[in-house]
Amino acid sequence: MPDRRDLANLHGRGHRVVAIVSAMGKTTDQLIQMAYQVSETPNRRELDMLLTTGERISMSLMSMALADLGVPAISFTGSQAGVMTDDSHSSARILDVRPIRVREEVDRGRVVVLAGFQGVNAMTREITTLGRGGSDTTAVAMAAALKAEYCEIIKEVDGICSADPHIVPGAKPLRRVDFASLSLRCASSGQRSCIFRSVELAQSQNVPLVLK
Predict the structure, then answer these.
(1) Contacts (Cβ under 8 Å, ≥6 apart) of 194
(2) What predicted TM-score, i.e. pTM, was given to this entire model?
(3) DSSP readout, 115-179?
């Protein structure tokens, strides 16, 4: 989750900012638990409707927090932002991004705060979720569609290391790594902080990634 002061600082320096947010803390896990408390086999469509509320809470609160710092901001869901997916509930793939409203608001000088992890199927008009790492994938897809200078992904770790620092005490952070090497690390390590789908998309769309 980006920090509101960092976003305000970027905006104040004249950058055009689009921020993608995830659900806070254990919200998604808690929502899944709630679903299984009322149903042994939750309907996947309804589960998607439930899970997308976590990101919607985050995007609304971030927009309010930015406004209190004097930064004009507006929040959008995935469907409002034009994130178009296939019809696979719980593990949808992004097929296209049509960021018409996002461009309009950025051109007006606003920070646009988007709910990650979610989109909409153009044919059925059903809300979908992207599965694990969905917010990172949303960020890369939106950066590609907007032809952004770069895409920052902010995680609970400081970046990519030469090895897992929890296992290898001497592991060192890598200042720069090519996509092929990063994809190999993601595929072989299985680390939760290293999401292969977003890296794969960034490579195919030539989006520079900054991991922080």
Answers:
(1) 160, 182, 185, 186
(2) 0.86
(3) E-SEEEETTT--EEE--TTHHHHHHHHHHHHHT-S-EEE--SSSS-BSS-TTT-TT--B-S---H
d(CA 177, CA 28): 31
For residue 28 the two structure tokens come to 């998604």
The H or E element spanning position 111 is: strand 111-115
The contacts of residue 104 (CB under 8 Å, 6+ apart) are none
pLDDT in tens, the chain (212 residues): 678 999 999 999 999 999 999 999 999 999 999 999 999 999 999 999 999 999 999 999 999 999 999 999 999 999 999 999 999 999 999 999 999 999 999 999 999 999 999 999 999 999 999 998 899 999 999 999 999 999 998 877 777 777 777 788 888 888 888 777 766 666 555 554 446 678 888 888 889 988 88
User: Which CA distances in Å does 170 have to 35, 43, 63, 165, 185?
Assistant: 43, 46, 40, 7, 17
Pairing of strands 209-211, 111-115: unpaired
Which residue spans within 26-101 are E strands per DSSP? 73-76, 83-85, 94-97
Structure tokens belonging to residue 58: 């985050």
Question: Whole-angstrom Cα distance, residue 133 to residue 63?
Answer: 22
Integer Cα distance of 152 and 212 in angstroms: 7
